[in-house]
Amino acid sequence: MKPLAIGLAGFGNVNRTLVELLQRKKNELRDRHGIEWRITGVGSRRIGWRVNADGFDVAELLGARNPGASSGWRGQECPRYTDWLQAAQPDVVFEATSLNVEGGQPAIDHIRAALDHGAHAITANKGPVVHAYEELRELAARRGKQFLFESTVMDGIPIFSLFRNTLPAIEVKGFKGILNSTTNVILTGMEQGLSFDESLRHAQQLGVAETDASYDIDGWDAAVKVAALVNVIMGVRFPPQKVEREGIRGLSGEAVRSARKSGMPYKLVCRAQRTESGVSASVRPEQIPLTDPMALVGGTSSIIQFETDIFPGLTITEENPGLYATAYGMLADFIRAVTP
Ligand SMILES: NC(=O)c1ccc[n+]([C@@H]2O[C@H](COP(=O)([O-])OP(=O)(O)OC[C@H]3O[C@@H](n4cnc5c(N)ncnc54)[C@H](OP(=O)(O)O)[C@@H]3O)[C@@H](O)[C@H]2O)c1
């Protein structure tokens, strides 16, 4: 079987970890799923849009801090993303550029062009899901390709595929949960006596913070995740700007510690509920009683509880995921996309 050609748009924490995971699972992918792969394109603003039609050397790729500048790095540089697609001829594009809350660009253009080119498009970037879900889904269907995004919410935990594949004809009435790791790491750190800045640095060291961490702190990342869930599993067009949003900037260390001491810790809580006129949704710091499972979710862990017409409460908890969890969601999407 001819190895599938992979294109990586963005080469930060997520796509680098994905490459490590692809390498680690190489034998399993080949032996159990019949998938062989090679990376023919890698690109970002600093790296440029680089192509090696024979496949980049993975160890070299992962070893190079700035692959574009590294002498050991072979490959031609293309002037534009579309030229890169033509030269790299990817069967699958993994889009993991930084989140753009306002309009979802340039990730939407990357995915649109990848699908137009005839590649599957797999992304960890929430922007395209909240700003162009219907268009990209329809384009993928017309092209006979897949547009998949399992890693956009709760890392690699199967949420979208749970509803798509195993809960047909169910109605999601609403959900609540903790969906932003960075603020949860910060609140947990502050409860333990760290300052806000020290806790933020810890989240950044873990690689879970957004490129621009104010997206996390001001509740934007959480609001975008809420909007993605409302758009996809509740079937209601809902831009992130419609989510009522308050971040954790206003919380002092003392307030966070005394809330925990009183048995009502602060959490950045996401909520969405169907109403007569559509959906209402919010992200804000709330004090949660210790009897609520949300109060027990610390660090990078996350939780979501769905209310459906069949299951009144369906809860998924994810404990202390790292970047491999996000990369795994993309790997699972890859297998789903390329196997019958
Ligand atoms: N980290 C996580 O735990 C996690 C979990 C789930 C989802 N995500 C999502 O995954 C995506 C990537 O996250 P990350 O942690 O890998 O971020 P990151 O480490 O900051 O990497 C972002 C990559 O995107 C590239 N990039 C940014 N803007 C670009 C542009 N306009 N054109 C081309 N390349 C561009 C950056 O390189 P240049 O600066 O050279 O362009 C960099 O290679 C984000 O959308 C994030 O929301 C992350």
Label the CATH architecture of the largest domain: 3-Layer(aba) Sandwich
End-to-end gap: 15 Å
The radius of gyration over CA amounts to 20 Å
In percent terms, what proportion of residues is strand?
Answer: 15-25%
CATH-derived topology of the largest domain:
Rossmann fold
Question: Which term fits the overall shape?
Answer: globular
Structural key phrases:
6-stranded mixed beta sheet; 40% helix; binds NADP nicotinamide-adenine-dinucleotide phosphate; alpha/beta; 13 helices; Rossmann fold; Dihydrodipicolinate Reductase, domain 2
Q: Overview of this structure, please?
A:
By secondary structure, the chain is an alpha/beta fold. The protein folds into two domains: 168 residues, NAD(P)-binding Rossmann-like Domain (Rossmann fold); 152 residues, Dihydrodipicolinate Reductase, domain 2. It is 40% helix and 21% strand. It contains 13 helices and 13 strands. Strands 4-3-2-1-5-6-7 form a seven-stranded mixed β-sheet, with helices on both faces. The protein has a six-stranded mixed β-sheet with strand order 9-11-10-8-12-13. Strand 5, helix 5 and strand 6 form a beta-alpha-beta unit. The protein is globular. The two termini are 15 Å apart. The model has no long low-confidence stretch (mean pLDDT 94). It binds NADP nicotinamide-adenine-dinucleotide phosphate. NADP nicotinamide-adenine-dinucleotide phosphate binds next to helix 1 and helix 13.
